[in-house]
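[agent] plan:
  1. take the single chain provided in the ticket
  2. run structure prediction with default settings
  3. attach structure tokens to the ticket
  4. add a short note for the reviewer (M.T.)
[agent] executing step 1
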Amino acid sequence: MLELNFKYGDACQSGDDKFVIAQFRADAQLGWVQDLRSHLQQKELKYKEFHRFRHRVQANTELWAKVQQGVFQAEITITNPKPYRDAIILDWLDQQAEPGIDFDEQTVNEQTGQRLIELSPLGIANISPMELVWQYDINPMRRFMLSSDTRGMEFRPATLKQRAGGGLKDALILSARSHAMVSPSERRELTAMALRLSNAPIATRLALIAKMARIFDMDHPNSVEILNEFSDHMIHAAGVEHFKQALSNAGKMVSEQDSKNVDHIQAADMAAGWAVDILLYTGGEYRELAKRFASVSVNGVAIPG
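[agent] step 2 finished; step 3 output follows
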């Protein structure tokens, strides 16, 4: 039986539409969560409530130090739709399109949602061999050795956006959660496995797939279904189907749980809110986050600390 180390995540949206997910490993030290709940006399820890009473916590020097140390164990994953939106508008303008006639807000939002999904890790399940050659400089002759089923299940961005709920925020949440499941350093390895280009030992493949296991707060069940299909696709691509039960919780790699019952998710709520505040007070400076938290990535790119 594989030893799983699920990551637990919760999210917060910033005032400028960035979606911030904070995650804690299952083995994170979370004694501070119970201590802080007790100090604030709350049944559930929420950053909004903590922020109201933070001065009371700061007055307790020992607890304040423990809370900061605990919160900054989090891994922060940010999805920012603005670069995608700006690029889509520029594409229209480059074609001499007339705003309000040839394209409008609805058109831009629809295309932005699809682009968010297309360029997220979910795109691994729909990438073509020619795209892989272009992106990763793989010998073009090898593409002819790829089997015809490498595109796997139906993972077209437009389809996934509709299944997620149809709105731009639905696409943003789905994209953000997939980025949270696959770190920038893991994405290349998963892409190679998806296209049968990896000769990694089975133990290495199992370890990589096991890292995708996630438990999120209960706020977007549609994305959970899609992300489990994505996980199944990667399990098949890695050739480790026989280990699926050991890799997952009751056959599912991704699930949601009520934060009231999970200290890890309460900790993630704290960290996500804290990260959004730092972005607000630093003018969106990602490096300031990277100096504090265990890791920070934005749209699939790791930010150095």
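[agent] step 4 note for reviewer: Residues 7-28+73-302 form one domain.
[agent] ticket updated
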